[in-house]
Protein 1
Amino acid sequence: MNAKVNISNRAGASFPVRRMDFEFGEVPRYWANGDAALTHFMTALSALFPEGEQFFVNSTRAVRNDPKLEDQRLQKEISAFIGQEAMHSKEHLAFNASAQAYGYDVRELEAQTGRLINRTIGVASKVLKPFGFSKEMIGLTGTCALEHFTSTIAEELLSNPDIQAMFMDQTMYHLWMWHAIEENEHKAVAFDVYEAMYGQGPKAYFMRSLALVIAMGLIFITQSYFTAKLLRTDGKLTWHDTKYMIKFMYGYKGFMTRQIPTLLDFLRPKFHPNDQDTTALLNKWRAELGFNLS
Ligand SMILES: [Fe+2]
Ligand SMILES: [Fe+2]
């Protein structure tokens, strides 16, 4: 793997924090199936991560000293979750910088993501405050919804050989597979924090259902807009240049289309992230990537 890996097992947490240091200098311009639109689709996702994952960390930190979260097991999970997300932010920032070197203004897309998150949380806090929903609750429920999105996409990456074949570049393959493993390792942490804080009653259920609908809508619009912006830089914002990606992602049995039932499973009142058991899949992939200390 074109990365230094340093695994620090956080005592007591059910998953470790792996300190990665990928080298993106040799990544080709169109590393996803040699296709501009497919590559930009993934880069647009990557542009969402640094600010998005910082938001997850901030939202969890904002509540972690609450007496309802004094359970030491959960506190250790929170520490490891924050450690993993901080590392994802760092490595996606480094990859995004390598795309910037090809002339794509990914820094601006990262900044737009940060502004969108702040604005959304600001507006939602104002609108929902009279109904008894705090800013902390809104931040955390947004984190839960987005974590469901990332773990769903990640499970597909780990399960589908056709998708894995898209990664023609080994560094990009390892970046996304490492990230996918960890999204599934920590998929229940924000949700467990949310339930410990706000319970499983109608108010908590309403808030997380609303958060999923808003989060999925915003992700779809923002990520599509970013993909279009990156394609425009190349002068490739045409049907001819995008049809392969659109079919790959949104066609019948496309990568994103296939996720819809799993994404909607979050709306089940008794939903819990661990209902979807990924233990065997994770063991297989940890061995595959040489993360045997995990
Ligand atoms: Fe992440
Ligand atoms: Fe995550």
Protein 2
Amino acid sequence: MTSLVQVTPVSHNSSSSTTSTNSHYSSSSTTSTSSHNSSSSTNSSSGGRDLPQLTWDRLHLVGNVGTGEFGVSHHGQLTLSNGDVTDVVVKILHSGKANTKEARILHELAVAGGTPILYGVTTKPHAIVMQYCRGVLLSSILNSFMYDVHHRQEAYDATCVAVAEFHGAGYSHVDLHAGNIIIDTSTSPYTCHLIDVGLSERIPPDDDWWEKIDWRDLQDIQTRLHLNSPDDIGRRELL
Ligand SMILES: Nc1ncnc2c1ncn2[C@@H]1O[C@H](COP(=O)(O)OP(=O)(O)OP(=O)(O)O)[C@@H](O)[C@H]1O
Ligand SMILES: [Mg+2]
């Protein structure tokens, strides 16, 4: 199922996307309102042309990592301008439209909250190309008996750290569920990558409504972590 599409970064030094800083987010124009309805400041008339552009000749797709309601995420390999090859996720919307909002948010977050590096966007077809985040989906941790209550707690703590950092960068995730959270279990303590930022919203000044949405979602996850833990199940069986 290997399709060989080679992709080359154009008009953009790919190394810059790997050394991005949080300074990006401060440059975004904020059109926030308190309506809780606000469209993201990430909408712009540029149509994404201001984002790093990549061409397909340096991309090599190697598999499918997930199919969601709105798009397909492929595992790919990107040849950087220095010749290095790096693992990436290439996300293409079912609609065929440009996923400019998610790309711009990733660009502005500049890896805050462990979000993937945005390498760039393509056209023909439209796709966003981001870092492949190593780790285990939190949903797999929830459903696996391999992770005891201590590991689950560590995964939850890492997620809280990432969410606080995400908020610190000015955004609320809005779509936090265990399928959008990747836990890197190779680090001690565990670290977290928040992915799928297409629904994220800029946090308006003096309004914590959006942040509360995320903390509420995290509470649900916390409840599930403890209810499903082998320790709890063992305890229930003893009762
Ligand atoms: N940057 C990434 N690194 C590693 N895996 C990823 C990355 N992005 C996406 N994935 C994988 O692909 C799956 C789907 O990605 P994503 O959640 O971004 O797409 P989606 O279309 O919004 O899916 P859904 O509607 O199910 O949320 C994720 O659950 C994850 O397993
Ligand atoms: Mg998702």
Protein 3
Amino acid sequence: MTKRNVSFVVWGVALLLLAETWAQSPRKKLTPPKPPKGQCCDEVRSLKVQVANLTSILEELSRKQETDLRNVVRQIMDLDQQNRQQEARVTEAESRYSEINNRVEIMQLQNLQSVTQTSSDAIYDCASLSSRNYKISGVYKLPKDELLGTPELSVFCDMETNGGGWTLIQRRKIGLLSFNRDWKNYKSGFGSIRGDFWLGNDHIVRLTRQPTVLRIEMEDWEGQTRYAEYSLFNMANELNSYKLFIANYSGNAGDSLRYHNTTNFSTINRDNDKCVDDCAALRKGGYWYNCCTDSNLNGMFYRYGEHTKKTDGITWYAWHGPNYSLKKVEMKIRPASFHP
Ligand SMILES: *[C@@H]1O[C@H](CO)[C@@H](O)[C@H](O)[C@H]1NC(C)=O
Ligand SMILES: *[C@@H]1O[C@H](CO)[C@@H](O)[C@H](O)[C@H]1NC(C)=O
Ligand SMILES: *[C@@H]1O[C@H](CO)[C@@H](O)[C@H](O)[C@H]1NC(C)=O
Ligand SMILES: *[C@@H]1O[C@H](CO)[C@@H](O)[C@H](O)[C@H]1NC(C)=O
Ligand SMILES: *[C@@H]1O[C@H](CO)[C@@H](O)[C@H](O)[C@H]1NC(C)=O
Ligand SMILES: [Ca+2]
């Protein structure tokens, strides 16, 4: 397009020169009929104007080309910057990834070193993780520890409530999982660590070998929350039927575990309660049944509308009586020696 314009201009200039020589020539010997004098000079003037016009068009064109070029350069620079930003984002993601990797490696390293560690150094529970500055609530993997004879265990840590360092041993909130299970199930644990679960009696026994605090948090269907805390919580081993020992209640839910103090654990297939009835079968859970309940945190989950009709629900008598099944429960433990 530009080339054509240039040749147009060249053609115009040639025409102008031709016209000028023709106009300046004193002897007009041209064969075509002579144009009148005025017409000739008008034509030259018009050609001059045209040339000037063409020149200005040409200048404008080159100016336009320059701005076009500048725009292209700017676009390239923009793209380059975007590219650099994207690269920075990738680098950031990579560094985060490697940070997580480092954490995993540290855990593995600690796992390897655990044989030579004293038990106070070991990653033993969520409290030890909290002391090592892991302050985000969520799922953690406790490495196995030869010295303590503990296998690898996934736990959910509450790192926020009242200073954090809590290892969850139970949660009810979704309601799809049955808690009406047998001795073996309660012994090794069941459910999903982010949802509803029982950590397992053997794991709980192991985690409570040192003086331990138990905290129970509850929510009702009206959205209110209450808690009960026992500054001493202990569970005997399987040989002693996972007998419960609790002391020193505090909280605002009322003390509905005291009635279960010093009773053995019962399940649907193991009646260890202090009653002629079979409480585990009546209350449809695994628990430290007396005769039978003042609370039943592993009972049936009932949804809103059904939650006040039965006596085998998730109950805490001191708060809502024997016929009110709670919406949410969490049981969590931490060493009595823990200092946030
Ligand atoms: C100059 O060119 C423009 C268009 O490019 C045209 O509109 C204008 O009439 C021209 N002027 C003369 C004197 O030829
Ligand atoms: C609790 O279990 C132990 C053994 O596991 C047994 O000796 C004891 O009698 C049981 N206590 C009750 C009240 O059933
Ligand atoms: C549970 O029983 C033990 C032993 O009898 C007792 O020392 C403790 O105070 C009791 N706990 C509660 C909350 O009553
Ligand atoms: C009982 O609990 C209170 C406060 O929770 C605490 O100060 C006290 O030391 C506890 N007593 C025992 C024997 O654990
Ligand atoms: C709870 O329900 C049972 C039967 O479903 C009933 O006999 C009892 O009176 C109820 N108790 C309360 C406190 O509502
Ligand atoms: Ca019985």
Protein 4
Amino acid sequence: MGWVSLLLLLPLLLRAGDRSLCTISFPFIQVCGKTLTQGRILGGQETTLIQWPWQASLKYKTHHWCRVTLIHSSWVMTAAHCFQQNAHDPGAWKVQLGSRTIKPHKLSFSYLHSRRVTEIILHPFYFGGPPKDIALAKLQSPIRFKRSILPICLPTSTTQFENVTMCWVTGWGRIKEHEYPRKPWNLQAVELPLIDQKTCDLYYHIGTKLPPFISRIYDDMICAGFKEGKKDACHGDSGGPLACEVKGIWHQAGIVSWGDGCGRPYRPSVFTNVSVHTDWILRTIKSNTFSLMPSKLLFLLTLQLS
Ligand SMILES: *[C@@H]1O[C@H](CO)[C@@H](O)[C@H](O)[C@H]1NC(C)=O
Ligand SMILES: *[C@@H]1O[C@H](CO)[C@@H](O)[C@H](O)[C@H]1NC(C)=O
């Protein structure tokens, strides 16, 4: 009886062990935010994935829909509004990692770095529009990290970006309001100054009749861009990261959420402030990640054998 149940259990145990080994050999806290490249590119230009290896495309059926960032070998983060009506149907979504273009060439073996989504978790207080425009998606199987696939760090303290003034937005979206992304749909990067929530709220009241006590920019939002407009994150970039380098390590300060037009004066891009949600993110990942430690596995095996 003992042997029979062991034989039945074995494949299950081995699979579980395999999965936990992956998370053990890649503790995401330690490998995050470091790119394997020297030097950097300049604003508003095409860029390589090795410089932004956490950047991925979220596909609905076969279409590029939003951007996501890799924060763990099995988890990506994006804006809640990206899932809209289809959060109940994780099977329709896919994440394409390790590809510089949203339409990878058939011979590039990009499917090796593509994963189905098995779980979609929207922020519990997201009600169809910002604030709380944040969501997590679990990948069907963990992704193996390599030069072009690495996670970005989450902010660990609220003062972390205190002395940071310039951050980067990367994406495949439009550069100008009436301009569509063009072939070959390569990744673009733009450097933007951070704007705190209060200043941004002031800007967003300019040119409106809205009284100042009615906020347009809520507590869990931050902005980035120039007062006079011009460079911006723009449409089609939803869900993507606002990434800031702090002491040589890249952290995700924001998630592209919304904006008013594109590159207009006093209308900088608005992001979900990730610092506000770090606790929720870590708690959600922890409570939805099954892991059986090898020590427990051995214990179970000896239990069966004895
Ligand atoms: C920001 O700069 C000030 C002055 O140099 C310093 O005291 C403070 O510790 C810095 N903050 C962070 C988070 O590095
Ligand atoms: C983001 O949220 C944190 C935590 O509430 C806050 O300390 C920080 O100032 C916010 N960032 C901006 C730029 O407003």
